[in-house]
Amino acid sequence: MIILTGQAFDPGALLSEFCQDRTETGAIATFTGLARAEQGDTTTLELEAYPGFTEAAIGKIADEALRRFDLHDFHVVHRVGKITPGEAIVFVATAASHRRAAFEACDFLMDYLKSRAPFWKKETGPAGARWIEPRAQDHADIARWETPKP
Amino acid sequence: MIILTGQAFDPGALLSEFCQDRTETGAIATFTGLARAEQGDTTTLELEAYPGFTEAAIGKIADEALRRFDLHDFHVVHRVGKITPGEAIVFVATAASHRRAAFEACDFLMDYLKSRAPFWKKETGPAGARWIEPRAQDHADIARWETPKP
Amino acid sequence: MARVLLFGRLSDVAGWRERDIDSASLGALRDLLAGEDEGLAQALAAPGVQVALDQAIVRGDATLSARSEVAFLPPMSGG
Amino acid sequence: MARVLLFGRLSDVAGWRERDIDSASLGALRDLLAGEDEGLAQALAAPGVQVALDQAIVRGDATLSARSEVAFLPPMSGG
Question: Is chain D in touch with chain C: ≥3 Cβ pairs within 8 A?
Fold first, then answer.
């Protein structure tokens, strides 16, 4: 399930729900991204998505994760709009038989979400507002999953 | 914080609490291990710990994780006693500035908990009861974190 | 009357986010936008800006219908 | 009167989990247990079985006091 929401959400409530009624899932990994205050440098984070397009793009990557890591299930919730420090930006949960697959799939989905998913991000602080582009680290992270060309 | 408990617990409630009041933590990773039914082969899992000794042993590894991955915080909750399929056995949460550290620390703690932590595990099913020893995969997983000897 | 959407910094540059514009093709739409806003034309031509027609990325020109949705997408930053 | 604890399969073999036993050293304690239960003696001597004295792993012999806690630990399985 892939959800974009303009409302603050509780990652714990999502995990509780995700754990329900599983008898063959041995492993659930989650990642929660929180908005950081950067010692006061960031007062507001604003995320823009393209409704429909953004969910479809995430859905393609999630389908790849399902196949690649033999997942039982996944859940992605992403905030859009204005987000204040301490609030959750993104929650990803993955369910698999064993922990390696659950961890790797969660890591894989996050690398995609943080570097290539269709979001546009604006940070506002005492120094004004600026649009953020992916960090070099994000590109390096996602490159780990790509098959080297022969 | 390291807790051993004989009672069923909700991983989501633990995550909700762990996310509270963080303004400089950008990344929270969690792992939840659930008891699997193994298609009816396992009816009960029983975990024995050595109170005091077990928490101290986990605490040493958690201290190593704090230093090694520059963690802000961690939380480990482990069930002991009889556990039925679908119930949570273990919950690990890690908090860091960035996601790579949070993921790696969570993965590292789980590899330790699943292979070397002072627990003794008995599975009971239609075929009777047996004590479980670590799987070869668990040894391989934990070997990933060890510095190769020159 | 294609619906035109601007995302990220593009809508800051243009001062609008969403407009209905009468245009027969993507090329004609770009010319029309360039004619009224030189700053926006430069921003649309910047490296990494993609165009989605009815939510699918397109390269080059394309015919627009009355119900087309055209979105100009700056480099995606991730969440 | 050291307190002796058996974990995992050791307590299944012995039929008890916790006993107070009067013994001056770990060696003397092992001899005493062997004298009363050959099966337990073999299980305690199996590869990977460790001994903790007052919650710290010890190798070889050690003196026991009246308040010592001795735990026999089979290979740890993880959780």
Answer: no
Residues B58 and B65: their CA atoms lie apart, in Å, by: 11
What is the percent of chain B with per-residue pLDDT over 70, rounded to a whole number? Answer: 93
> Over the stretch B61-95, which tens digit does the pLDDT of each residue have?
999 999 999 999 999 999 999 999 999 999 999 99
In a domain, D67, yes or no: yes
Q: Which residue has the tokens 């969440």?
A: C79
What CATH number should be reported for the domain holding residue A126? 3.90.1170.40
Residue of B109, B133, B142 to mutate, testing the D interface (most D Cβ within 10 Å of its Cβ): B133
Q: Do B119 and D55 touch (CB under 8 A)?
A: no
The answer as to whether B149 is a domain residue is no
Handedness of CA B52, B139, A24, B28 (dihedral sign): positive
Give contacts of A27 with chain B, Cβ < 8 Å. 31-34
Domain boundaries, position D14: 2-73
ipTM for this prediction: 0.89
End-to-end CA distance of chain A: 35
